[in-house]
Amino acid sequence: MTELHPRSGVAVSTVGLVHIYRAEGHDVAALSGVDLVVRPGEVVGLLGPSGAGKSTLLSLFAGLIRPSAGRIRVGDHDLGAMSPAELDRYRATDVGFLLQGAMRNLIPYLTPRENIAFAQRAALRAERPDVPAPAALVDELGLGDVAEATLRSLTPAQQQLTALGVALAARPGLLLADEPTSQLDHEARALVIGTLQRVSAEHGTTIIIVTHDPHVAEALPRTVTIRDGRVSGEGRRGEELSIVAVDGSLPLPQAIVAALPPGTLVRVQPTEHGWLLERDDIQTDQATGEPR
């Protein structure tokens, strides 16, 4: 199996990705055909309401769950085709996962340096030459003064940076972060997001962040909105864009959906400056399809 290059970011892609789980005797589609491409070294935010499928998508990227249908690739890996042993090695050395809440990522009785050293065991067994010394990674994250401190003596920002150090311990090509600023104040939030951006810039790490925080979303160069288990839009440089899906469907921005009741007929036609969405005067009844 081809190894991911440990010091550069990897491409991430999904085609028709579906994940169905069982709840109270019923099948629930958490993802319903996600098509997504993340380029090597990109920093991308996943936005959308609770229950839209964002955290499910992160878990699929991490190899924690398998897709029900569709394809998912990280670098040279087809995650759906990997054996349990291959997925274990992938999670230990090729992908870093930052869970929501710093202490969920850490062993509470170990220091920041010891936590990072513990997370490096699998990469060291694989004789990866690029694995940084724990003290060097602690210094890189600005934690040198508290490297041997107890975790509970650290500030919330220092705890989260320690958790980030654990996720980066093996210099993964892909870093996944689930709400990394949810319990931080404004100053700490800016420090963590700035550190993530610096990690991507210096090491080329591909980073995918789930967030509900509009301040975090504004700081990211690209955002992808997930609604009802599908990609419904993107943000680039502050501009919201809709995406034409493989099947030709076009999810509309929520403001437009709110202004157009079900059954509304619209025309989409080219103009000199782009495309025009025009409401038709003849509307149909959604149930019967007859004019009303």
From TrEMBL:
InterPro entries registered for this protein in UniProt: AAA+_ATPase, ABC_transporter-like_ATP-bd, ABC_transpr_LolD-like, P-loop_NTPase
SUPFAM superfamilies, per database record: P-loop containing nucleoside triphosphate hydrolases (SSF52540)
Lineage top rank: taxon: Bacteria
The ABC transporter domain, residue ranges: 15-253
PROSITE patterns for the chain: ABC_TRANSPORTER_2
Pfam families tied to this protein: ABC_tran
GO molecular function: ATP binding
Keywords: ATP-binding, Nucleotide-binding
PANTHER family associated with the record: ABC TRANSPORTER RELATED, IMPORT ATP-BINDING PROTEIN
Protein name (Swiss-Prot/TrEMBL): ABC transporter ATP-binding protein
